[in-house]
Design brief:
By secondary structure, this protein is of the alpha/beta class. It has one domain: STAS domain (Transcription Regulator spoIIAA), CATH 3.30.750. It contains four helices and six strands. It has a six-stranded mixed sheet, with helices on both faces. Strand 1 and strand 2 (18-24) form a beta hairpin. The protein is globular.
Length: 132
Amino acid sequence: MRARGGFGRELATEFSSRRLEYRPGEFATVLDIHGSIDGMSQDRFREEMGSLLKSGARHLILDCGDVDFINSSGLGTILMIKDELNRLGGTLVLIRMSDRARMVIEMLGFAPVLDVAENEAQALELVARGTG
């Protein structure tokens, strides 16, 4: 796996048993998340997202197809990142969420404030409309 740093470049990073892979695109950066987003990973996840924002990324698509677990701590971190992106004029869209993850989002009352799309193409449409 190639790892290059900075905005507009591919980057993969490990945090605990989790892994992020960045795929910069023309309109948004896609982050492939592998593992869980929870209290054990939230600090490192927040740190990685902060670095990405500092490097200039403004439109993020979080591909959660390989997320095996997400809890309120992980969702809280995602909401903090979304708020920061909104402040910077950016967007955040979640894609390929499992039924279980969608249920957690709904149970915690986050559904109205998170943009969720089925796939990357739909997420890019939301980014183009400025939703997020």
